[in-house]
Amino acid sequence: MKEDTNVARASRLDTATLSDALDRHGLAGQCYKIKPRSASFRMTGRAWTLQYGPAGNPPGTVGDFIDDIEPGTVVVLANNGRDDVTVWGDILTEVAHHKGIAGTVIDGINRDVALALELGYPIYSRDNWMRTGKDRVQVEATQIPVSVGNVRIAPGDLLRGDADGVVAIPREFEDKVLDSAEQIQRAEDAIRQSVRSGMSLREAREKHRYHQLQTRETT
Questions:
Q1: Most distant pair of Cα atoms in the chain: their distance
Q2: 103-123 mean pLDDT
Q3: How far is it, in rounded angstroms, from Cα 170 to Cα 22?
Q4: Residue 207: predicted pLDDT
Q5: CATH classification of 28-169 is 3.50.30.40, yes or no?
Q6: What residues pair up with 54 in beta bridges, in sequence order?
Q7: Of 186, 181, 187, nearest to 204 (Cα)?
Q8: pLDDT tens for residues 53-101?
Q9: Cβ of 170: how many Cβ atoms within 10 Å?
Q10: pLDDT tens across 122-181, in order?
Q11: By the 8 A CB rule, do 40 and 117 touch?
């Protein structure tokens, strides 16, 4: 399989730096209140999306979608932020981990956290609780644009997760965002080195044009 260069680039950057780069280009990509179930989790990959809705009568399926997802992909489940029913549990975690899926992002909640921690499988969600979504929610559509933490995520968008949360980078802007993030990272690394060598933070930031890096550009 050919390496996805931009996935590799994103994996070397943290979400805080990518967030600053998104802001620089006026893009909303910070998934609000979507958090890792463990601060040790890291995740990078392209989005595979699924939209849930309230179950009908008779209720529809919660889906066997995991069979259709390729290794290295991030599963994105939009459940409208619901925190009263889960849409991800231990069987999905085990299968996803076995298949080499990069991680799961949920605008909602999951359960069976212990297995995710044991396997080191990254899950990012609003919270965790045990109540099943079976007969309470159903799959409405797959591979469509969805909303997660007030961010629009389309199939194939680039996702990065770490201890601070999840950012989503629209595919059409990812080269510009990654270029900016790498520039910000180089400047911050240079500032740290200058301070360690005895320079004041004010001087180091001025020398490496830190504040200019935060100036918004037109994407």
A1: 69
A2: 98
A3: 10
A4: 65
A5: yes
A6: 137
A7: 187
A8: 999 998 888 878 999 999 999 999 999 999 999 999 999 999 999 999 9
A9: 20
A10: 999 999 999 999 999 999 999 999 999 999 999 999 999 999 999 999 999 999 999 999
A11: no
Q: What are the two backbone dihedrals, phi and then psi, of residue 146, each rounded to the nearest 5 degrees?
A: -130, 170
Which residue has tokens 């629009």?
A: 152
CA atoms within 13 A on the CB side of 197: 8
One DSSP character per residue, 99-121 reads HT--EEEEESEE--HHHHHHHT-
Contacts of 42 (CB under 8 A, 6+ apart): 11, 122, 161, 162
DSSP 152: E
Helices within the chain (DSSP H only): 5-11, 15-24, 90-99, 113-119, 174-196, 201-207, 210-213
Alpha carbons 185 and 179: distance in angstroms, whole number: 10
Instruction: Judge if pTM exceeds 0.70.
Output: yes
Element (H, E) at 29: none
Please state, as a whole number, how many other Cβ atoms lie within 10 Å of the Cβ of residue 89.
19
